[in-house]
Amino acid sequence: MYHVKEAFYTLQGEGAQAGRASVFCRFAGCNLWSGREADREKAKCTFCDTDFIGTNGINGGRFDTAQALADHITALWPQGASHAVPYVVFTGGEPLLQLDSDLIAALHSKGFEVAVETNGTVPAPEGIDWLCVSPKGNNPLAITQGDELKLVYPQPDAPPERFAHLAFRHFFLQPMDLSAVAIKHIATDGAETVNATTAYCMAHPQWRLSLQTHKIAGFE
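Structure (tokenized):
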């Protein structure tokens, strides 16, 4: 059984694949936070700005089989788009609590490339085409190599230098969205956070700046 909060067709807004047409499939549930505000302060990740509770979002639901969910995702990709490789991004919450080899295989059989955006604390199944890890705080990583490491910045307990040696193809710093959630331990505003992230990337050119273009451009 797969529990999907929401699924929708959009453009990828962040990182190395920014601007690419994508079906986003957001799984319900996370291993670092319950998703409830009452639990935020004591959570292992305190700055999440995403609703991943339940299955009541757009195109959300419960799917008994990998094939059923693969069919659901395929229906969201535009028909007749024969010149583009279908692309699905699994996110959450924490998608690797649910994504498995059966679902990956079902989507590959339909021609999809399969991408994942994970906090990196859960081992990944084989077959993922694009693996993006976004570390959260001092939680230990089970995934230390992949296509993209995208670090929300600043995190006092997750400095960039802790991850710079890992075997990823791309390294991104993404300014924390302070407008989405009150962060007590970050004593800056949004503009200062963007400036600080930009300055770090310029001083450490291994890292590239990632902006949330879906929020800037106003699409989901």
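The beta strands are 2-11, 21-27, 61-63, 87-91, 113-118, 130-133, 145-153, 167-175, 208-209. Residues 2-217 form a domain with the TIM Barrel fold (CATH 3.20.20.70).
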